[in-house]
Structures are given as C-alpha cells and as structure tokens.
Design goal:
oxidoreductase; NAD(P)-bd_dom_sf; three-stranded mixed sheet; 6PGD_dom2; Rossmann fold; mannitol 2-dehydrogenase activity; Mannitol_DH_C; N-(1-d-carboxylethyl)-l-norvaline Dehydrogenase, domain 2; 2 domains; about 500 residues; five-stranded parallel sheet; globular; 13 strands
C-alpha cells in the first residue's frame, strides 16, 4: 500500500474510482452494473449499512443475490442529507472495522439508489409497488412504531396515523407508504412483499404487522384483510455496535486512503437471526452466517435485555459522572460493579439460553464487546432516546422480577440514574445537552422529582399503569434520595453491598 501523502492523497470514493483505493482496502468483487434491486430499506442510517447491507454485500461477493440489491429510502426531512452524500459517491459505503488488534476497511456496494425524500412519499410508494421489490425492510428506531405505552398496541389516535388514515394516497409515515404500496400491488394483481423490521423490539415482526394491518383497517378493511392473509412480517434480531460517525471516523477513513463523506465504523461482531417467513422469496442469507429459525423469541430476549439493557445501565450513570465512552465505563470500577450485579441478579435470572450459548456466556461476550476501546461509542449516543429505550430494554426485566418476587433494587437504581441524567446537569456541574425527543418534558419532570420522586414514575407513557409495584416505587424513591444526598457513586456503593438475592 502506498502511504497517504501529498503525492498519494486519499482517493475519492466513487464507482469508477475503486481501483484507485489502496490495495489493503477490500472492494466489491462484483460488477455493480449487474445488480438489480429487490429490497427497499426505509431508515437508511449507519446501522443498516454496517449490518444488513454488509450481509447482502457478502452474498454478492460470493456471486449470489445479484437480484437483491438495495434501494435506500427515508420519510424524514433530515434523511435528505444522507441521501445527497451517498448519491455523490454512487451509494458506496466505507466500513471501518474497529478491532482491538487494529482497524481495517472495506467498501461495500449492494445499495444502488436512494429515493427522493418527499412529503407525500410518492417515489417511495411507486418503488415499493414495483414487482421487483420483494422485501421492504426498516430501521425506524424503537420509538417509531406508534405504540400505546400502557397497552403496547398500535396507537390509532396518533396525529400522524390519523393523517395517513384520512389521506391514504399521500401518507407522511413509513407505515402509510407501505399500506399505499400494498394497495397498489393488490390492484395490479401482485402479491405482497415481505415487510422486515430490523429494530430492537421484542416481536418486531408482530409489531410491524399490527402497525401495517391496523393502519390499513382504518381506511380500507378489505385491504387490511388481504395484507394480513397474504403478507409476511418475520421477527428478527439484529446485533452490531455501530457508533455515530464523528470527525474521528472521517479521519480514520482518510488515513486508510479513502475520501468518504459518510463512512461507518463498527465493532468486529455481527449477528442476525430471522424468522424464516418470506412471502415473496429471499436471498440465501444462511450462506453468510444469518440464523434462519422459527424461534427468534429467545434470541431477542437475550440480546435486548443483556446487551441493550446493559447499555442503558452504563450510559445513564456514565453521563452523570462525565465518563465519555462505553469502554471507559467498563474501566470504571464503580460503574462496572453496578453493571455486573444488576446483570447477574436482576436480568440473567429472567433470560434463557439459546442454541449454542448460555445467558452467562452471552454476558461475558457482551462485556468483552463493551470493553473494546477501539469502538469510541459515546455514552451520549447510547443514552439517546431513553424514553423509547428504557420501556423496551429495562422495564421488561423489572416486571419479570416483580412477578417472580426477586430483587429489583438495581433496576430501580437504573431508573433513578435515568431520572437524574434527565435533569441536564452532570455531577461536575457541566450541562447535558438535550438528548431525547421528549427532553423538555423529561427535564422538567426530573427537576421536579428531586422534591417528589413519584412524579417521575407518574409518567405513564413510559411506565404504564400496571406491573409497577409498590416495592419498585419505594426503592426508586429511596435511590433518588441517596443520589441527591451521596452522589451516584455513593448510591452504587450502597447497592453493591446489598445482600445477594435470588428468586
């Protein structure tokens, strides 16, 4: 490899410039002109490119799945920035693998276009109506599914959902666009596509089905019945730690000899488990290590509770204590002690083994991954949108613990740390910038909860109206008092000295 110097500057990433990249950079072995689209992906961010797109790329590297190229799509105005960047480089992406032994890069090319961002989603509907599209996948975040906090059911009263029901041909949501496209396919005598959620929700396929069928039912009950009978919505579990793209990631890309406007870094681990239920065919995913199964549930619970829940254990208190990254949290003896005790006593007892891995083995893998210092994953990124993440990642463990009568002290402390973080001030006095779609309301409630902790738990949109016990309320209140009087480290010290409990 020629060193990156003024004489050998980084090569601009583009389709006709792949041969200019350093020899150490892995590039597509396939001709991208031979690819044909078969997938539309909505919500095309870093995670999709480092995970699902990578798996499609690996199949293409083997001479497979050429008819399963990806077309990117978005339904929010901010998606336009990513669209512009990717189109300028022919939808190629640099993936930087952050291995503790050293970083490496590869360029992947399974994405062939990015649809215009439009208020009416006309281009998106038109493309999903095309018979060549057989899978529509989504990463729209845990909070993007319009679920009622108390029941978990599809929220038909949401303003955007009511708009799409009244204006089914000009929807503003991804779900409305999917319904409109399925309506057009039925009118054209086509079968539905498979709708594949890739978000961190337990039973994400079932949830997506409820959203699509529920929205269709509001304007066209016959269409809803057709979708429910003929469409498929596989459950899936996705896993790869993908930090936000920072100036450091861009600099890494340049140092590797690649001038990429939107590079993606990721850890050296991936997992994808999918329910094998595709109504319009699928690529040979099993050829590149994807687990196809009819029992995704156990994999989901293990990952969502141990890894995603573990992220929240670390990130909230890490923000309060000005610990910048997840790997730094793992080096902090107090935070690590808190993390390990909650996991062992209050999360693992409610998780079951999956084929080839026990819950204890999975926790050790997670600890190793979180400790990867090459992955500069900030506590701020991981703590983002706690209003969506806590109900999905931590509260299910809490409810199981309440039912079983086992310890809830650590989970109550985790919720107290979330409340304390949402005051917007770290313990060193520095400001925590707004970090949640509902930050203003959360901060107001968190500040008021200093005098009356019950105010925090009265946010029924997060805690619901059932399965929050008196025991939890009392523990939360006690921890809030301890945090304000003795600080977060004082609260952790008190917690880790509690007698070990089992259910």
């Amino acid at each position: 490899m020629n060193p990156v110097t003024k004489a050998n500057p980084p090569a601009r990433l583009r389709r006709d410039g792949l041969s200019d990249l350093p020899a150490t950079v892995r590039t597509p072995a396939y001709e991208r002109s031979d690819l044909a689209p078969g997938i539309v992906h909505i919500g095309l961010g870093n995670f999709h490119r480092a995970h699902q797109a990578w798996y499609i790329h690996q199949m293409m590297q083997q001479g497979l799945a050429y008819e399963w190229a990806i077309i990117g799509a978005g339904v929010r105005n901010y998606d336009a920035v990513m669209r512009e960047r990717l189109l300028e480089q022919d939808c190629l992406t640099t993936l930087i693998e952050l291995d503790p032994k050293g970083i490496s890069a590869e360029v992947i090319g399974p994405m062939v276009d990015y649809l215009p961002i439009e208020d009416t989603n006309a281009a998106l509907i038109r493309k999903m109506s095309d018979p060549s599209i057989r899978i529509v996948s989504l990463t729209v975040t845990e909070g993007g599914y319009f679920l009622d906090a108390n029941t978990g059911a599809f929220d038909t009263d949401h303003e955007d959902i009511r708009h799409d029901a009244r204006n089914p041909d000009q929807p503003r949501t991804a779900f409305g666009a999917i319904v409109a496209a399925l309506k057009q396919r039925r009118a054209n005598g086509l079968r539905p596509f498979t709708a594949l959620s890739c978000d961190n929700l337990q039973g994400n396929g079932r949830i997506l089905r409820d959203c699509i069928v529920g929205l269709a039912r509001m304007s066209d009950p016959d269409l809803a019945k057709w979708i429910d009978e003929h469409g498929t919505f596989p459950n899936s579990m996705v896993d790869c730690i993908v930090p936000a793209t920072t100036d450091q990631v861009v600099s890494q890309s340049l140092a590797l000899g690649i001038d990429d406007r939107a590079p993606v870094s990721h850890e050296n681990f991936r997992q994808w488990v999918i329910e094998d239920d595709f109504c319009a065919g699928r690529p040979p995913l099993e050829q590149v290590g994807v687990t196809l199964t009819h029992d995704v549930h156990s994999y989901e619970i293990m990952k969502l509770r141990i890894l995603n829940g573990g992220h929240q254990l670390l990130a909230n208190v890490g923000e309060i204590l000005s610990v910048p990254t997840i790997s730094d949290c793992m080096l902090d003896s107090d935070i690590l002690a808190f993390f390990e005790k909650v996991q062992a006593e209050e999360i693992l007892p409610h998780v079951h083994a999956v084929p080839g891995t026990t819950e204890e083995e999975y926790l050790e893998l997670v600890k190793k991954r979180f400790s990867n210092s090459a992955v500069h994953d900030t506590t701020r990124r991981v703590a983002f949108d706690g209003s969506s993440r806590h109900p999905v990642f931590l509260l299910p463990s809490l409810r199981d613990a309440v039912v079983s009568g086992s310890s809830i002290h650590g989970l109550a402390l985790a919720e107290a740390f979330w409340c304390r973080m949402c005051t917007g001030i770290r313990e060193d006095g520095s400001e925590i910038a707004p970090n949640d779609p509902h930050w203003e309301d959360l901060q107001k409630t968190a500040l008021a909860s200093k005098a009356d902790p019950e105010l925090w738990l009265n946010q029924r949109q997060y805690y619901g109206t059932s399965n929050i016990s008196k025991q939890f309320s009392e523990a939360f209140t006690a921890w809030m008092t301890t945090i304000w009087q003795s600080g977060s480290r004082g609260a952790i010290a008190e917690y880790v000295t509690l007698a070990w409990q089992s259910h």
